[in-house]
Structures are given as C-alpha cells and as structure tokens.
Amino acid sequence: VQFVESGGGSVQPGGSLRLSCVASGFAVTNSYMTWVRQAPGKELEWVCSINRSGDTYYPAFVKGRFACSRDNAKNTIYLQLSHLTPEDTALYYCATDAAGSNRGQGTQVTVSS
Hints:
Distance between the termini: 37 Å
Helix content: under 10%
Structural class: mainly beta
Strand content: over 45%
Strand order of the largest sheet: 2-10-9-4-5-6
Order of helices and strands: EEEEEEEEEE
C-alpha cells in the first residue's frame, strides 16, 4: 500500500488549494479513506473522511470550507481546501483511518500573508 499526496503550496489567507492522493496497491473505490494533517508541534488531526458510498464526514472546525472526494477511475482521492486561514498551515496526509494509518509522505500547505 502506498499513497502519494500532492498539490500543496503557499497561499494567502482566504485562498484555495486542491490536494490529491494517488493510491497504489490499494483500491480507494472500496475503501474508507481520510485526510489528516499535522501542524508543527501539534498532534495529528482528522480533517475529513469518505466512505465506500461516497458519503463524507468532517470535524466541526472545517465549517464547510473543505471537501473530500474520490475519482475511482484514477484511484485518487482529493481534498479541496477553501477559505484558508493561517491555522490551516500543516502537512496534509491521506490515510486509511482517522489515526493516520498508512499515510504517505504528505504535502505541505502554508497559509500566510
């Protein structure tokens, strides 16, 4: 199982990014997948989940700003980030559960003015 995250970058507050996670040796189609993040000096934090049916779940702090989705043909999951704030600065990972199991190397998101 390998996940490769990409799409991170530096944006100003209020900006948007779309993160991608390509899976190999693993079918995201039939799987529960999550995005988690880790800010410097902080613990890993769950950001969103998508289940086999395509239903999505988010923690309260997301407040409608983020959206996770899946492209079965590309075996890829996505995380659309919008209305970003400096508090969203972190390394973002896709994983197979909210604890961050099997996560890849991550992609850095930096929000600053």
